[in-house]
Sequence to fold (320 residues):
Amino acid sequence: MKRDTILLIGSNGQIGTALLPRLQDLFGIDHVVAADIRRPERATGLFELVDATRALDLAEVVHRHRVTQIYHLAAVLSARAEADPIGAWNLNMQTLLNVFEVARTCRIRKVFVPSSIAAFGEDAPKDETPQTALLDPSTVYGISKVAAENWSLYYHKRYGLDVRSLRYPGLISYQSMPGGGTTDYAVSIFHHAVQDLPFDCFLREDTLLPMMYMDDALRATLELMEAPWKRIRVRTSYNLAGMSFTPARLADAIRLYYPDFKVTYSPDFRQQIADSWPRSIDDSVARKDWGWKPAFDLPRMTHEMISHLSEIYHPTVHSL
Ligand code: AKB
Fold:
C-alpha cells in the first residue's frame, strides 16, 4: 500500500510543535511536510514556508509533495481574535476554505480541522456540556469554529471529503507556548513556578474550565484520524474531555512541588470569554464511536509539566 504523505499547516504553533514529531514517527520523516508562515528556529525534516490564505501556494505545495492527508492547525485564538474580529474571521475562514478546496480538488484522503470548547456559548449547559448542545458562541473565534464545523459537514456530505474534527479544551504543553488564547494562563503558570517567579493570573481564581494535557490531545487526534471511516459518525466535531480545574486548584497542585509559589488574580477581558464557555464536557459520543479515553488527570499532568520544564530551565539540577 502507498504510504500517506502528511501536510501539517501551522507546524510552529502550540499543537503543531508537539504533533510534528509524532507524525514523523508514525509516517516517516520524509512523509511529513511541516508548513508555517514563519521558519522554525530548529527544523527537522521537510519544511515549507506557506501562507495558507494563498490558495495557489497551498495547492503548489500539495502537488509537489503528493500530499494525501492535511492537518490544518493555523488559526487566530480566542483572546487575540477579539482585538481584530474581522482580521481573525478572514484568516480563520480563508485558510479553512483553501484547505477544503485543495483537499476536494486534489483528492486528499483525510483532513483534520480542530474545533474548540469556544464553539459553545451562554445558552449551552455549563456542566457536562453534551455533544449536541446549542452552539451560540460569543467570541469571533467561537463563531469561526461553529462555521468551520458546518463547512466540514458540508464538504463531507456534498463531496464525500473525509473531514475529522475535535472540540479541544484548553491545551497544556511544555513544548511551546500557546499564543492568544483564554486558557493560556494554565501554561504560563507552570513557567513562572519552575523559574521561582510569582504569577499574576488574568482569570478569577474560581474560573472552572475544561483542560487537557497535550499528550492526551495528540493521542485523541491520531486515534480519531486512524479510526475506520464507518466509526466516525460525527462530521461536525467531537466533544473531547480531559479534566476541569480552576486557577486556584491548579496553583494548589503546583504548591505540592513549590510550597512558596505566590499567585495573584487580576481578571481582564478574558474573564468574560471564559465565563461564556463550558465548565466541563460530556465526551461520551467520542468514547462510544472511536474508543476515546483520557489518561491524564490534574496531579499527573502537573507532575509531567514540572518535570519537563525543570529539565528545560534547570538542566543540571533536575530531579523529581
Ligand atoms: C483558547 O483559549 O482560545 C483556546 C481554545 C480553548 O480553543 N485554547
User: Anything to note?
Assistant: DSSP finds eleven helices and 14 strands in the chain. The mean pLDDT is 97.
